[in-house]
């Protein structure tokens, strides 16, 4: 029998909200009654389980038996139960901020009182003699390499999608909206998926060490166990934190919100221009009053937030629908080939981007992509480590994500001002564009942000979301407003 190699992941990896947030679809079997785990409860639980290997973390069922029993007793009764308005599931699965019971609990749930014994056995099982850990150094090296490599892919995907969606007659003029939508969609799929990393948790249910027989494990506990293992894998962290976090950008979202407010949002040229007149610029707009500008600001904020939240759920729904045909990554392929290969790819591609920035095949490539690729890993790794450091400080308010989003927004505004003064000529303009697209774009994230909004308790989610949007817009007004309403934005001297 081959030996299964488990990662020796640092305990502070649990501070990543890409790991801790519950899946977007918290009631996949559409049970009649359900309460989902919030980020606050998960973080409180993790704080009490630091000494337990993360792949065996499970919330004790006994802590939630009383509420489960109450839910099981509350069945639908009476003739009104046949009405769709009565039996239809509520728009929000968590109806209050009360403690929760496991996924799928409710009328017809497979949970029963005798499962608590089996559950406790699962929690305390230790790896078999054939299992051993990947070293702590190798685990962190693989994680960093995946973050670097996927930050390149996320940045290129965002820049490419922004270019594709900026066309004459485009109904939405903020191109980063579709990048935020797509990144949130992928994050929702990854959060809910149970097939891609299936080999990481074995090929079947756990066995009783006493007699070697399989335990009867209910689907909710199996899903919890799989999610706990999956979210400690460097490849998953690279996809969720590296790719999705770099594909989406909170700083670009706030920049477009301010430009909508100041009537400077670039607009595709949608109408022909007489040959006797000079062609208009995409940044030239007709004057409008303050009321229309405020409506434009609200449009960008509401569209981006709601569409990104919808994409999160849509991605999760697609993961559930495609579960029967979703392929599984082979365990040996991931450990023996993909992990070591990514180390060479990540640092090799980063070195190549730096060399191509010095000796570009075409000068325009520097501002369009090359400088962005040079700075992208720095932003992604900064976000990763700040999240590890700060996200656990306040369970009800993800301080790490909030800090990087606001800091990245402030930097984006500063770089935009310097680019439109202008300062430093063409090369300086290209470097500033690379800092905005690469460093700030990967330092900030919308996919994690909407995942947190979905996972926090309702009141905490509204407070966190409102503060993020309010402080972000205020930061842009403070940094960019002086230049915009003072001397005005000058045209850039490089392609943007």
Question: SSE order in H/E notation?
Answer: EHHHHHEHHHHHHHHHHHH
Number of helices: 17
Strand order of the largest sheet: 1-2
Largest sheet: 2 strands, parallel
Helix content: 55-70%
Poorly predicted ranges: 51-130
Total strands: 2
- Beta fraction of the residues? under 5%
**What Rg is obtained from the alpha carbons, in whole angstroms?**
25 Å
Question: How would you state the average pLDDT, rounded?
Answer: 77
Quickly give the structural class.
Answer: mainly alpha
Coarse morphology: globular
First and last CA, distance: 56 Å
Written overview of the protein:
The protein is an all-alpha fold. Helices cover 57% and strands 2% of the residues. The protein has helices spanning 17-20, 39-47, 65-73, 84-87, 115-124, 136-164, 176-192, 219-230, 234-247, 250-261, 290-321, 331-358, 364-390, 399-419, 425-443, 447-455, 458-485, and strands at residues 4-7, 131-134. α6 packs across α13, α7 (176-192) runs antiparallel to α9 and α16 (447-455) packs antiparallel against α17. The longest helix has 32 residues, at 290-321. The N and C termini lie far apart (56 Å).
